Amino acid sequence: MSQKSKRFYFSINESEYKSIVKIFKASALFAPAGLLISDYGVIAGIFDEGLFPNEERISNLADMNFFDLFIVPEQTKNIISLLKTNNASSFIAECTLFNEKSFTVTVRRVSEADASFLLLLLFPVISARTEILSPESIDLFSEHFAGANFFWVQTVDPANKIEFYSSRAKEITGYSSDELCKMPHKMFHIVQDDDRARIMKNWTDFANNSRQDCIINEYRIAAKDGSVKWLRETVVSKYHLDKSLIGYFGFVSDITKEKHLADSLQQQIDELIAQSNSKDRFINILSHDLRSPFTSILGFSEILLNENSLTESEKLEYLKYIHEASENQLQFVNYLLDWSRLRMGTIRLEASRIRVQDVIYNAVSALTGNAIRKNIEISVTVAENLFVKADERLLSQVIVNLLGNALKFSFENSSIEILADRYNERQAEIVVRDYGTGISPGDRDKIFTVEKIISKEGTKGERGSGFGLTLVKEIIQKHHGEIWFYTEEGKGSEFHFTLPIHNEAALIISDNDDDREFFLSLLRQINPALDTYQTDNGFDALEMLTNYSPNFIILRHQLPLMDAFRFIEQAGRQIIPFSCVYLDEYNAETEAMYLSEGVEMIISKPFHADHIKERITHSGLI
User: Fold this and answer.
1) 235-244 — which CB contacts under 8 Å span 24+ positions?
2) What pLDDT digit, counting tens, does each position of 388-430 carry?
């Protein structure tokens, strides 16, 4: 077919809708006639090849509503339906126009900017099988305005059998039209096993139901490259006017991205629903736990207020109960606030390089009184120079909580062990082990959850909030660590948790580029995995100390704005494990000054690389 013999009429501004006009004119390459219909049913464009009565009549069509074209109104029901939806796919139907000519009509929605139109391609029924069912026509249709969809055609007449997949099938499946046609069951051959039985049943039901002229299936295929893709297939049955079946058209779209997005959204919805349900349960539990202690507080306070005959020892006992209940409730509220702030992100983790040994000994010192009262021995075994990247306050809270629980549930005259060492190259492991009551099987799944807060008395009646381990888990997770436990009822428990190891790091402070490059190269020779940071002044270096917590510092004596001596004073010796000051020229008095400040290494130019490497290596820090 040639566009030269066709007449085009538009009632829309062609320059305003360039893409739609281009598609409309391209479709004239393979269709005898076409209509462009607006959402309001107005005919926006026409082309034909002598199918309409005369030129005067066809020019008048531009002012008509397309419903006026059809003799049988029922034949427009699918088109009317398509007008009402923005997601419609292509479909094929038959209709009889006002000139009493019968056509096969192919309908598809096309859009540009905010405008949307229906493109109707008209084929005389007498030529439908040679035009619309020919591989050339359907492939051209696919190429010019089908977008990402591909098409297939299958006729049922043995004398004129047509089986065809458009060329775009290869873009989605990886298989050519010939490859698909030669497969034992065509496209069914690459449908995934989990979907194949369902799709074949749907197909059989559709083929056996003459009242159903369309079916839509969604299924997965195994593409040629091994990937799994989701497809949406719309199958339309094609009939002669005598109601005998010609065959089937299939319109296939790749909906993999759409499915993945839908799955992701559904997962988010499920998570939000679970969170909402969890919050509801938590609020119910929380309201009970917040209210319960006040019963005993109010009860004992009323006795103290109303009973004048109480002895001093009785008053003291009741005051002790009130104090203990208030203390536990305050701890519960504090834990709850910390947990909530961590969840909301309002507590900012101030992670730094922390020596594990120091934090553990501080926790043991804080709870020594509890251990003495039950005559419990606490042994600590910590790898020397084990550093983790953590918020020191929150890490202390974790260890105090775990050690406090171990003391609470330990028997008198028993022992507790705290162990810390490298877990792997990236993590350190800390273990708190006791030989106390252990955890009953019924309580083990409640340990870390907010929905099932449990509070048990210790071996000497000690009470707690029941919320501590929930907070502990939240803190550890915020540090990208994990926590787990082993327990045996009557024999004790051990809690393990991991934290990221703080990598060894060095800071070079010098305004001399050549010097910085020399030390940088030297340090990398000693330890290629060493994290190195550098700056040219002491003020920036003070901030870098806080951010990176280096365990080795090399600095030039004569720094701009702040010399090395002033920097060491400002930084404080406790946060500089090892320092090396270098001088541009040796000076005994300057060397003595730095040595008196505890600087471990003073060197001067000219540098001797081997000697410096030996001294740094001997420090054992990097």
Assistant:
1) 235/203, 235/206, 236/91, 236/92, 237/206, 237/212, 237/213, 238/92, 238/104, 238/128, 238/133, 239/94, 239/213, 240/125, 241/94, 241/102, 241/125, 243/210
2) 888 888 898 899 889 988 999 999 999 999 999 999 888 999 9
